[in-house]
Write a structure and sequence with these properties.
The chain is of the alpha/beta class and 281 residues long. The chain has one domain (27-278): Vaccinia Virus protein VP39 (Rossmann fold, 3-Layer(aba) Sandwich). It has a seven-stranded mixed beta sheet, sandwiched between helices. Strands 2-3-4-11 form a four-stranded antiparallel beta sheet, with no helix packed on it. Strands 1-5 form a two-stranded antiparallel ribbon. The chain has helices at residues 55-60, 64-72, 74-87, 91-98, 112-119, 131-141, 175-185, 202-207, 224-233, 257-267; strands spanning 14-15, 27-32, 37-41, 47-49, 52-53, 102-106, 124-128, 145-147, 160-166, 186-197, 220-221, 237-244, 272-278. Helix content is 33%, strand content 24%. Bound molecules: zinc ion (ZN).
Length: 281
């Protein structure tokens, strides 16, 4: 899968931030990526971009060009999301949950997953910050989408049976608030599905600052262990974690890709982690 990566605009306003996981404002340099850099929190070990563009400027990155990238890759992204849900054994819970509330795709891009979940009998809702992508989802895929961040979505607490969010939390400036909002939106017994690059995976360790997920748009880089710790702290109960991806397509080590992918998956140390968590009933 190709990662969308371009240089940040020169006129973005930057600000220094404390750690979004533990709140402490003391971090050591971690990865220097040229136009931007990552630091590691001295207290909890979380890795994040610092300084970071202000939220308003970050939102401007999700423009027409970003929509085009999402649209060009929509079918491939759908296949990956569906595979992720299968690996998490999500579909075993589907029948019981479908009656209990919405399937919310938080960061739904062009709405391809929502369209498919609607066909499976779900009432669906999307939230998307990239306006052209949201418009495409509404007009071309006929699914309801709120345009804007999750904080501004007019959804009632407890209205969602499932909140799915794939490759989104690493783009969000405040992942703690983001996860808290997911928790509020879920009904008791509802499920959260969170997919994000895993900084503790094999590729991140191998490539360091050249890791394909160490890009400007990723302002928080979680290890799966830290993310699960944060989720438990916020009240979630983690049901299972899966991971996949041993080596990126097109890397210099291409002949090793297939065995590396198999090994990474078997050992649960892949490049991307997927976490299935429940809000206690
Ligand atoms: Zn911290």
């Amino acid at each position: 899968m190709k990662t969308f990566s371009k240089r940040p605009a020169q006129d973005e306003r930057l600000a220094s931030r404390p750690c979004a996981v533990c709140g402490v404002d003391s971090a050591a340099p971690y990865w220097d990526c040229g136009d931007f850099s990552f630091v590691r929190c001295r207290r909890c070990g979380h890795v994040y971009q610092n300084p970071q563009p202000l939220s308003d400027d970050l939102e401007l990155r999700y423009d027409y060009e970003y929509f085009q990238y999402e649209l060009d890759n929509a079918e491939q992204f759908y296949q990956l999301m569906h595979k992720g849900l299968q690996d998490l054994d999500f579909f075993a819970h589907e029948q019981l949950l479908r009656e209990r509330g919405l399937f919310l795709d938080l960061g739904c891009a062009t709405g391809v997953l929502l369209q498919n979940m609607y066909r499976r009998g779900w009432r669906v809702q999307g939230i998307e910050i990239c306006e052209p992508a949201a418009r495409y989802a509404i007009e071309r895929r006929s699914v309801p989408v709120h345009v804007g961040p999750v904080e501004s979505a007019p959804l009632a607490e407890g209205s969602c049976a499932v909140v799915h969010t794939s490759h989104v939390i690493e783009h969000v400036p405040d992942p703690r608030i983001f996860l808290q909002r997911i928790y509020q939106l879920l009904c008791p017994g509802g499920l959260a599905v969170i997919v994000t690059p895993d900084r503790s995976g094999f590729q991140a360790r191998l490539f360091g600052s050249r890791w394909r997920s160490a890009i400007a748009d990723h302002v928080n880089l979680f290890s799966s262990g830290q993310l699960m710790r944060l989720m438990r702290e916020l009240g979630f109960s983690v049901v299972r974690k899966r991971s996949w991806g041993g080596l990126a397509a097109g890397s210099a080590l291409q002949p090793l890709k297939r065995p590396a992918d198999r090994l990474a998956k078997a050992l649960n140390v892949g490049d991307v982690c997927a976490i299935l968590a429940r809000k206690p009933a």
